[in-house]
Specification:
single chain, Glucose Permease (Domain IIA), ten-stranded antiparallel beta sheet, two-stranded antiparallel ribbon, 40% strand
């Protein structure tokens, strides 16, 4: 696991070398309060078992920040995600959903910690929150484990 995590960070730094000279990592939302984890759960709207491909974080009109340096791949509206921003960080892609305001535009190169939007309740939701998802080489991974890894890397310096 540690070797795979080190490769993941290396992919990000090679894809966006300006990240190495600036802040490498930032929490997407502060304070950070988990309301729904990654994995199988009972869907809050349908009541059926469903795979949750991200994590939900409690938010109230809060600034949402890019977790890593990268390039904005897409933004817009999706029926389930609502207003969203998707950012490429090399082999890693992060998605931020249910926003009320989008502040990052497609093609923007942004450092970690850049405000990319404001939390909201757009899309299919029961209340305001941030949906945060991470893909590594096209596969969904647990965003909480990903953030813990980045935090441990930051603390190791």
């Amino acid at each position: 696991m540690k070797r795979a995590a080190a490769y993941l960070l290396l992919h990000v730094l090679l894809a966006y070398p300006f990240a190495a000279s600036a802040q490498i990592f930032h929490l997407p939302l502060v304070p950070f309060k988990l309301t729904s984890p990654f994995g199988v759960r009972r869907h809050p709207i349908t009541g059926k078992a469903d795979f949750h491909a991200g994590i939900d974080l409690s938010a109230r009109r809060s600034p949402i920040r890019s977790a890593l340096a990268g390039r904005v791949l897409a933004n817009g509206f999706h029926p389930f995600l609502g207003y969203f921003v998707r950012i490429s960080h090399g082999a890693v892609v992060t998605t931020y959903g249910h926003l009320s305001v989008i502040m990052a535009r497609r093609g923007d190169e942004i450092p970690a910690g850049t405000v990319i939007g404001i939390s909201g309740r757009s899309g299919r939701v029961t209340g305001e929150h941030l949906h945060f998802a991470v893909r590594y080489r096209g596969e969904q991974i647990d965003p909480l484990k990903f953030l813990f890894f980045l935090q441990s890397t930051k603390n190791a310096k």
